[in-house]
Amino acid sequence: MTDLVRVQLTFVSPSGDRASGCTEERGSTAKVRLPEPLGDRDVIVDNSTRFTARGARPPALRQCGELGCTPPATGCTAASYDQASRAADVPLHTYREAQRCDGKWLVLDLSWRTGPICGDPDDPACTSRQGDRWFFRARKAGWQPITRTAAGGCRDVRRAEPAFPAALCASLEPLSPALLPSHSPAPGAR
Fold this sequence. Notes:
It is a single chain. The protein has 2 domains: 1-70, no CATH class; 78-168, no CATH class. The protein has 2 helices and 8 strands. The protein has helices at residues 78-87, 155-160, and strands spanning 4-7, 42-45, 49-52, 62-63, 95-101, 105-113, 129-139, 142-149. The chain has a 4-stranded mixed beta sheet with strand order 1-2-3-4, with no helix packed on it. Strands 5-6-7-8 form a 4-stranded antiparallel beta sheet. The longest helix has 10 residues, at 78-87. It is extended and about 60 Å long.
């Protein structure tokens, strides 16, 4: 038996036909009857949205997020930094480098290439980067961005969040192109 139940919903309306008078949108509810009990299986609707009973109050299901139904715990791990990168909504192929992390607060340098498309990574014209230093706080749903800056020290983050620990930001140098992360992009980084 598979661990998924796939459901395809199709709703047809004359809403595209202006002459019909149906020109507005509204939400709707659909009931789905399964041939057998759901059990521990998750539900995939329209091949894109996943729901699970884990953590939901029966008979309801809980919608899973972009990190899945059981996202990695917020902490000082590569998977957690991936979630922070997505929360910052940075461009595809962003490079990241964790500067400081204590499990409750995170400093992450994020950068992306700019300029021409190049085949030679050693060509100076191909190494131009743009980026920011992002500061995050841990929340139940994952890392939440506080602010971003290229400045060093704590001034900008403490202005946005006075509780941010000085021990994690006081010795940070300002970002310059030479200091931006340049190793491989994070898996799944946006």
